[in-house]
Amino acid sequence: MIKKVSSHINQNELLLFEASSPGKRGYQLPDLDVPAVDPEKVLGDLNVREEIEDFPEVSEVEAIRHFTRLSTWNYAIDLGLYPLGSCTMKYNPRVNELVARTEGLAWAHPYQPESLSQGCMEVVAVLEHALAEITGMDSVTLQPAAGAHGEFTGILMMRALLESRGNPRKKILVPDSAHGTNPATAMMVGYTVQNVKSNERGMVDVEALAGYITEDVAGMMITNPNTVGVFEENIRKICGMLHEKGALVYMDGANMNALVGVTRPGDFGIDVMHLNLHKTFSTPHGGGGPGSGAVAVVKEMAPFLPGPRLKRVGDAWSWNYDLPQSIGRVRSFYGNFGVLVRALAYIMAHGGNGLRQATLDALMNANYIRALLEPYYEIAYKANSMHECVFSDDRQAKKGVRTGDIAKRLIDYGFHPYTVSFPLIVRGALMIEPTETESKRELDLFVDAMISIAHEVEENPELVTKAPHSTRIKRVDETRAARNPILRWKPKSTASEAAD
Amino acid sequence: MSYPENLKYTKEHEWLLVEGDMGTIGITDHAQEELGDIVFVDLPKVGGKTSKGLSFGSVESVKAVSDLYAPVSGEVLEVNGLLATSPEQLNTDPHGAAWLIKVRMDSPAEASDLLSAADYQKYLGE
Q1: Fewer CB within 10 Å of terminal CB in chain A, N or C?
Q2: Spatial contact of A147 and A293, defined as CB atoms under 8 Å apart
């Protein structure tokens, strides 16, 4: 039975292009009372944009209604559970927004003098300090604009440190459960990637790992807890093995929501890591970004951090550009500053104990879901779950129902789907991360929906394989969309020419 | 689908057809089945090199992007142009029309450690 949602009428929507009517606009200007100027003559034709053909013309109220109606078709964390595993779709507290709208922060300009930017610089300094404390690392850069950007920054620094020791080395080890960005990052920094197999408990196989660590290995990129939601129990040993051979350890901090306030990567041997402020520290993401991929390092790596760096001059902050070993700037100005303000607001509002409690709640929620769903879905690995749990569709596949079908049926029950088909080491993965945001009531609704779907799979699998049924658009042909993507709207006449 | 006896197989689910020092490389029926609907194939250019055990390209399905691993080292002589416009051929005829690349093998002896059709099927069963 579908408890959470019922269908209600909503309006069909034209594209703005189709709603356009020549001459309509949302403003009125007085008649020109000075001679008209030809912009091409004054600015040069290179600086004057060509008219856009068929640019939509609508009134203000039409534009407002259009976008407001579209927004009601959306699913968001503000509407309910968003159990997208690995993404940490937690609620973004409104106090973050209040703080980010503080006049002196919201209207600061990156070119305003340091003497007028002391508050903003203090925000950067305090956040760097807080993140260093949370991770147990020595220094932090807030420049990277997203997680993968943080990885790139971190591995560049790893390379720079090894180069300063005489040899950048050739290979990066990446577990087979890793996020796809890890091997991509290693390649971008000029390393080759060596895949490391997981053992039957979903952890790095320490014995196999030993065979991979040679003098050619620059380091390892490891996610902890890893992508099957399992804590790498041997993490200290793994770090020790790499350090012994002069290699370094990068931690992908995507799953830091399972560790904050409980344990610190710096304490278990990590040399460099990123944090996704847009995951762990509650800044908006999933279309609402931008992101922030802060990178934390141990002191041996600090000289290589991107510049400029903050320094204290007398009783004021100043930017230090004199950083001879720095890998250089990785982002214009100082990172996505508005996001940094929100992350700091989240940290300050919680305090140390509050952050720890959030972590424990996230773990409890994931394990609550796991315990209630294990009778119906096959858990991928028996090891304890941390902040997310990963099932496989093994039992449902026998009825011809795959993880993607169950996810689409979940939409009919009023929930955003979980993460489908990742991590790749689990066949037909269902990856569920509820985060600490959810109440027992919401978790129970979700569990009821999942159990109900498990019954449907047994009794009427077609109901699931043809889902969703109650959405505005029924099941879309994802394959055709990927093979023959239509990337932008074109006027009908042009579109039919293109089709010819 | 059956696994032709005249092909050699890797544990990464590629196949190799050896004809003299020429090797034709493709992915197995099991690989396409696991990947699901394939939407894009990224292959090396003619004249490029493959190194045994290393990635020479990738294949993208609606689910994931997967590396393609070379069963042998060699020089790329030919690339299957069909796949640029019809990647779905990999789902329908992985052991035939949807071969990926042809290489001149540096050392045909490299193929000797690949699996036979029977061993590959046994490997899949495990």
Answers
A1: C
A2: yes
Q: Which of A200, A479, A480, A484 to mutate to test the interface with B (most CBs of B within 10 A)?
A: A479
Q: How many CB atoms lie within 10 A of CB B30?
A: 17
Question: What secondary structure does DSSP assign to A44-80, as a single string?
Answer: -GGGSPPPPTT-----HHHHHHHHHHHHHT---TTTS
Quote the distance between the C-alpha of residue A399 and its chain's center: 34
Residue of B nearest to A480 (CA): B39
What is this structure's pTM?
A: 0.89
Mean pLDDT along residues A236-244 = 98
Helical pair A403-412 and A440-459, crossing angle rounded to 10 deg: 120
Set of chain B residues whose Cβ sits within 8 Å of the Cβ of A483:
39-40, 87-88
- Please state the domain count of chain B: 1
* Residue A38 buriedness (CB in 10 A; 0-12 / 13-18 / 19+): exposed
Distance from CA of B89 to the nearest CA of A (A): 12
Could you give the maximum distance between any two Cα atoms of chain A, in Å?
A: 82
The beta-carbon neighbor of A421 closest among B37, B63, B88 is B63
Task: Kindly report which listed range (A189-198, A355-364, A426-435, B59-68) carries the lowest average pLDDT score.
Answer: B59-68
Neighbours of A367 (CB within 10 A): 18
Please give the structure tokens belonging to residue A469: 């049924």
Q: Which CATH code of 3.90.1150.10, 3.40.190.120, 3.40.190.10, 1.50.40.10 fits the domain covering A360-483? A: 3.90.1150.10
B40 close to A (CB below 8 A): yes
Q: How many CB atoms lie within 10 A of CB A243?
A: 14
- Nearest-angstrom CA–CA distance, B14 and B34: 13
* ipTM of the complex, rounded to two decimals: 0.74
Q: Where are the domains of chain A?
A: 16-72, 95-349, 360-483
For residue B53, being part of any structural domain is answered with yes
Q: Which residues contact A238 (CB under 8 A, 6 or more apart)?
A: A204, A206, A209, A220, A222, A232, A249, A269
> Does residue B75 belong to any structural domain of this protein?
yes
Q: Does A68 touch chain B (CB under 8 A)?
A: no
> Cα-flanking dihedrals φ and ψ of residue A311, to 5°?
-140, 155
Phi, psi of A235 (to 5 degrees): -60, -40
Burial B81-109 (b: 16+ CB within 10 A, else e): eebeeebbbbbebbbeebbbbbbebbebe
The topology under which CATH files domain A95-349 is Aspartate Aminotransferase; domain 2 (3.40.640)
- The per-residue pLDDT for range A260-290, each reduced to its tens digit, is 999 999 999 999 999 999 999 999 987 767 9
| Cβ atoms A149, A339 nearer than 8 A | no
